[in-house]
Amino acid sequence: MRDCSKECQRGAAPDRWLDGLDAMVAELHAGQRFCCSQTVLAIGMRRLGIDDPDLLRAMEGFCGGACDGACGALAGGAALMGLYLGKGTEREPRSETIRQYVKELTETFCAYWKGTTCESIVHGEAELRKRICPNVIAGAVEMVWSILGEHGLDLDRRRIDRMPRQ
C-alpha cells in the first residue's frame, strides 16, 4: 500500500509495528471510516495501549484539511508526537523537544509529499485521494516513529511512563 517505507524511515532500526501498518491503516481508515488524522493517532494509541475515544473525537477537527488546509495525516503525526512527549497534567513538565521533532516531521513530510496541505498532495481529486491518502497516513506514522526512535525514545512507552511518580 504505502510507497515511502524506505525513505520515510530515515535510517532507523527495523520496527516490528511497521509489518502490520498497512493492515491497520486499511482497518481504521477504510474499515472503520476514521479520517487521516484520527487514523494516525489511533495507530499510535494502539501501540501505546491507549483506548480513549475522546482523543479520536478531538482529532476529527483536523480531518480533510479542515485546519486551514493542513493535511490530516501530518496533524495526526504532530498529535502523536504530543501523545509521546506532551504535557498532560499540572505536574508534568513541558516537552523541551517537541517543537524540534514536529519541525523535523513537517520538513520530512513536505520533502516526501511535496507539500503539507491536502490540496498540494491530492489536488482535490477524489480518486487520487482514495489511492494516495492511505500511503500518506502510513508514511506519517513511519516518519513519527523514525524521528522519535532516532532521538532515543522507546516507541512502546510514553515519556510519562518513564517519569518517577510523585
TrEMBL record:
Naturally occurring in which organism (per UniProt): Pyramidobacter porci
Phylogenetic placement of the source organism: Bacteria, Thermotogati, Synergistota, Synergistia, Synergistales
Domain of life: Bacteria
Protein name: C_GCAxxG_C_C family protein
Database matches in InterPro entries: CGCAxxGCC_motif
One Pfam family here: C_GCAxxG_C_C
